[in-house]
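re: ur msg from earlier - yeah i can do the NAP complex, just paste it... oh wait u already did. ok heres what im feeding in:
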Amino acid sequence: MSNACRTGRIRGSRPRRTGPGAPPDTFPGVIVLDGAPVAKRLGEEARAAAAGLSPPPALTVFLLGSDPASQTYVASKTRAAREAGVRADTVRLPSGTSPEALRDAVVKASRDPGVDGILIQMPLEAGHDPRRVLDSLDPAKDVDGLHPENVGLLHQGRPRFVPCTPAGILALLDHYQVALSGRRAVALGRSELVGRPLAALLTARDATVTVCHSRTRDLPAVCREADLLVAAIGRPGFVTADFVRPGATVVDVGINRLQSLEEAPENLRRSERVVEAIRTKGRVLVGDVDFDDVARVAAAITPVPGGVGPLTVAMLIRNTVLAARLRRGTADSVRRSEAT
Ligand code: NAP
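and the outut:
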């Protein structure tokens, strides 16, 4: 991380213009958008809201198989839930569990009056259709916001449960006072988990949004139009400075685990942090953005880890508390999420 990096608010930095394909200018003093203080505040708010509910909100997490990354995510989600005063149970289903057995377990939890929120940890193993599993979930307990009813509400501009990662990105941008109205935003990635719901949220906030994917032509040029670039593609260090308009804000959603320099793309092999972490720990977490390169031109950038990740967890807890309040009649039946 460069010495010029600092955390704080973005002070009305208007992007400088570059011609298509032109080498990027440098932009002095990038701001690092640290997710930790925002997640802490959201956690405290959730804790205060949960404390007003008896019995406490209850979250059930389904974990299928033994994928190490999924196990880590579930452990950090349930730990954060408990810290916020939310009861969190993990239902572990062995690898090879049939789609019918998984759906039966989800239906059972959906019918259980003691369960307020349900999360099905993705990705599922091959052979499972995530849409069929999500269809079997009670939409009133869908704290990940992926059931078609919640997706529809979001796209109609009256969200109930907003998917946690895009909701967290909005909370982060609002915390650092990143202007959205009238700005050009590019979502790099069109998944149902991140890119698509993010596009709906940014559109609702009056940004002009382009969604890119693996078939997008002239990808760096399209990304360079963005005042706000959000990368969620699962490709380590893919976004380099030539994707970024000088003065843009860059949000890195990607979480990629590298265990050797051979797994790293050429550009990341030059990163001191990557080289050092692999040498000393034998592994490193990197985003979809080449941080060192992009920090030379962006006005603001999220780190990996420590940027979007903590907010995804915080939003899950927030959604679980909201689910409990909605089910118990202490919130409007369908209301705008406070996250938007
Ligand atoms: P996903 O479902 O695999 O979707 C990836 C998207 O990226 C797809 O739309 C794909 O395009 C696009 N893409 C892939 N390669 C591309 C390329 N070379 N050029 C342009 N577009 C490309 O992934 P996801 O679930 O959205 O996750 C994306 C990343 O975010 C992963 O690293 C994941 O681990 C991370 N993530 C982090 C958090 C967090 O809390 N920080 C939460 C969720 C996900 P097509 O549609 O054309 O295939």
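cool cool. The mean pLDDT is 91. ping me if u need the other ligands too
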